[in-house]
Amino acid sequence: MLDKSEYLHPDKECLSREEIEALQLKRLKETVKHCYDNNEFYKKKFEELGITPDDIKTLADVCKLPFTTKQDLRDHYPFGLACVPLEKCTRLHSSSGTTGNPTVILHSQKDIDEWANAVARCLHMVGLRPGDVFQNSSGYGMFTGGLGFQNGAERLGMLTVPAAAGNSLRQIKFIRDFGTTAIHAVPSYLTRLKEVMDQEGVDPRRDTKLKVFAIGAEPHSEEQRKRIEDMFGVKAYNSFGMSEMCGPGVGFECKEQNGLHFWEDYYIVEIVDPVTLEPVPDGEIGELILTTINREAMPLLRYRTRDLTRVLGRTCPCGRNHVRIDRMKGRSDDMMVLKGVNIFPIQIEKILMQFKELASNYLITLTTDDDNDNMTVEVEIEDLFTDDYQRLQKLQKDVTRALKDEILLTPRVKLVPKGSLPTSDGKAVRVVDKRKVYQ
Ligand code: COA
Ligand code: AMP
Ligand code: ZN
After folding, report:
1. 3-class SS of residue 236
2. How far apart are CA 97 and CA 34, in angstroms?
3. Cα of 123 to ligand 2 centre, how many Å?
4. Which of 164, 157, 129 is nearest to 7 (CA)?
5. Is the Cβ atom of 142 under 6 angstroms away from ligand 1?
6. Residues whose CB falls within 8 Å of the CB of residue 337, separated by 6 or more in sequence, listed in order
7. Which of 10, 182, 196, 205 could cross-link to 212 by cystine, CB 3.0-4.6 Å?
8. 240: CA distance to ligand 2 center in Å?
9. pLDDT digits (tens, 9 = 90+) for 361-387
10. CA 342 to ligand 2: nearest atom
11. Is the dihedral of CA 347, 348, 352, 358 positive or negative?
């Protein structure tokens, strides 16, 4: 017999598979009609495929629908995928990690409320309750981990500390003074936080009330999770989200820690072969495709996340039958996630090419040094400047600044003589990731 107090939304969390699928079909039909009736982009795509909303009769018919991509969002920047008039929207978020136009996601007040409900459900699932103190070390502003966790933690009724990113000494002071019991952080930052705790003589087991971490927004391995849990004596639960799907609250581990439950009353989850785009069987790795079925302002049909993962199962000892998805295994594109920030190599290339003093060969290396994740950008310089030290120093500063403006974090920039970086006969190697974030 299930203990109902374990679930924030028992009517949704404890549905049988049949009930989940019936609800999904109902919501899918509504979403598809909403897109078709209210958005030119989708209407045109449907016409090209020769389908109408009436063709969606079963859940399996989802595969008749067109895919939507990041490029589609950029091509219809800023509001071309809206399905409601702008007056109905109360928030927008835009994601980093694109060149040219960013991607924009619009939300109605209902969308914001439903998003908060989803995040609250995740936090409740791992034992957090009113009376807990929740500290959020996400960047705020456009990073959806900021307001996303803020609203969800408030919805659950926790005392919420919007500490935001950076300043580890202040984070530690808040943790101690406010009796923080739970933190949301990107995993790489928690190892930095522990380093500063050690320097300050703070023992998390002795000096804090920490009991739960929500870790996500960047790939990490099971080993990293275990290491974090051991360092702090705190349970760390994997949290998956993406701006296009609202942000956090898409998938979250339950106390079993056996994969992330993706909330199927909000999303239809498909895993497809990234090349053929055909479905792969459960257990096989492919690209995660998500369709929003509970969104008003800007639903997305069959969104290609580019994240690679697999279905682990559709039942769980926790009593939830929402699909269990494995931790992310890689990407089907070249996006890197560093310090919770998305970066494409092309963004870096675009900036480097703006400096006429720089040659065209460059190498991006991602490392973990003393528990800090870092990016080093080595770039060759035109011979002309090699013996002018002051000019080189200024150039190095200017390049660093310009890169920080573009990618939102500070890389180490090394200017190196022309011809010193490796070249290959075929495609040049531009990125070396030594962090081992995917396992
Ligand atoms: N979250 C929180 N704090 C972080 C962080 C992260 N992901 N990465 C680094 N920091 C801390 C650093 O530890 C440092 O503080 P400290 O020296 O007091 O310990 C401070 O932020 C600056 O770090 P640094 O690496 O020197 O700065 P940067 O110029 O490279 O930029 C951030 C780093 C933190 C500003 C940027 O990476 C950021 O905003 N990250 C947050 C992204 C996020 O919230 N993603 C969630 C999306 S849902
Ligand atoms: P953003 O849109 O900025 O929130 O970034 C979303 C992307 O971050 C996803 O598509 C993933 O590549 C990555 N990401 C988010 N959460 C996780 C997680 N828990 N594990 C691995 N990657 C994640
Ligand atoms: Zn479970």
Report:
1. strand
2. 29
3. 18
4. 129
5. no
6. 217, 218, 219, 343, 437
7. 182
8. 6
9. 999 999 998 878 999 999 999 876 667
10. 3
11. negative
Please identify which residue in the block is written with the tokens 């209407």. 43
User: Residue 199 corresponds to which tokens in the numbers above?
Assistant: 């320097």
Q: Kindly report, residue by residue over 41-90, the tens digit of the pLDDT.
A: 999 999 999 999 999 999 999 999 999 999 999 999 999 999 999 999 99
Strands in 348-436 per DSSP E: 358-369, 372-381, 412-417, 431-433
Amino acid letter at 17?
A: R
- The H-assigned helical ranges of 90-186 are 109-125, 144-156, 168-177
Q: Residues lining ligand 2, judged by CB closer than 6 Å?
A: 95, 144, 216-219, 238-243, 247, 305, 307, 328, 337, 342
DSSP 62-116: GGGSPPB-HHHHHHTTTTTT-SS-GGGEEEEEEESS-SSSPEEEEEEHHHHHHHH
**How many whole angstroms separate alpha carbon 103 and alpha carbon 76?**
9
Beta sheet of 267-272, edge-to-edge order: 267-272, 286-292, 303-309, 330-331
For 77, the token pair is: 């920047």
Ligand 1 lined by 192 (C-beta under 6 Å):
yes
CB 207 within 8 A of CB 172: no
For ligand 1, whether the C-beta of 165 sits within 6 Å is: yes
Residue 410 has a CB neighbour count (10 Å cut-off) of 13
Which phi and psi (to 5°) does residue 332 adopt?
Answer: -95, 5
Q: Which residue has the tokens 């995993």?
A: 187
For residue 264, which phi and psi values (nearest 5 degrees)?
-85, -5
